Amino acid sequence: MKGHDPTGKPMIVFAGRSNVGKSSTIRALTGKRVRIGKRPGSTRSELMIDFGPVTIVDIPGFGYMAGQSKTAIEETKTNIVQNLESWRGKIALAVLIIDVSLFRELHERWSNRAEIPIDVEFYSFLSEITPNVIVAANKVDKVKPRVLQEELNFLQTELKEAVQTKDPIVVLTSAPKKRGISELSSLIDKILVEQGLEKPRWVVT
Ligand SMILES: Nc1nc2c(ncn2[C@@H]2O[C@H](COP(=O)(O)OP(=O)(O)OP(=O)(O)O)[C@@H](O)[C@H]2O)c(=O)[nH]1
Ligand SMILES: [Mg+2]
User: Fold this and answer.
1) Residues 136 and 173 sit within 8 Å (Cβ to Cβ)
2) Which of 8, 32, 52, 143 is deepest in the core (most CB within 10 A)?
3) 185 in ligand 1 pocket by Cβ < 6 Å?
4) Ligand 1: distance of its center to the CA of 146 in Å?
5) Total domain count for the chain?
6) Model confidence band, residue 76 (pLDDT cutoffs 50, 70, 90)
7) CA of 25 to the centre of ligand 1 (A)
8) Using CA atoms, how far apart are residues 1 and 8, in angstroms rounded to an integer?
9) Ligand 1 lined by 18 (C-beta under 6 Å)
10) What is the CATH number of the domain that holds 49?
11) 115 inside domain
């Protein structure tokens, strides 16, 4: 099934670093028992989920994966980028999942090495593929409430700096606790309707 969409329906792609909760978020939205794992690299190739009027695509995480060599990790990333490019015309929207409890720490680590943080790089890339990108700042349950606003501001500032032509759409989520999931599904629906597309039946509304 890799890289091949059997349905031809509009795609909603879920992308993000390994272990941020892409599969968990899809499960919370759709009730489909997609594979979830404790270790990064649980989803090894694109999974196409036929979901009513749309195809939901669970994309493998990029970045670190347990038990994988650096070369293999690089190859996975190249593969993801190529697949997304080849689906360009079919993607109705992209959901970028970010682990908000780790974002600042990872961001600082990459910036200190004079590299573009991978979450931000991917946000720019997805924004080139589609004008419709939603960022789900997931694992919000792991962030201390008193620093949450600060972390969110930091994330929004970094995203805005990366793609200056529009304000980022960010929704705070916790997939296992189902927090923010109905907000996320409403945002997705809004974007689908704007494009004249049909809304799927989410399990959480
Ligand atoms: N605390 C907390 N844990 C979460 C949240 N979302 C996912 N997890 C946990 O994070 C781990 C990874 O979840 P997955 O949904 O498999 O993540 P993924 O992004 O699909 O991972 P890969 O397929 O490996 O790239 C699992 O142990 C989940 O239970 C969240 O919002 N809060
Ligand atoms: Mg996964």
Assistant:
1) yes
2) 143
3) no
4) 23
5) 1
6) confident
7) 8
8) 13
9) yes
10) 3.40.50.300
11) yes
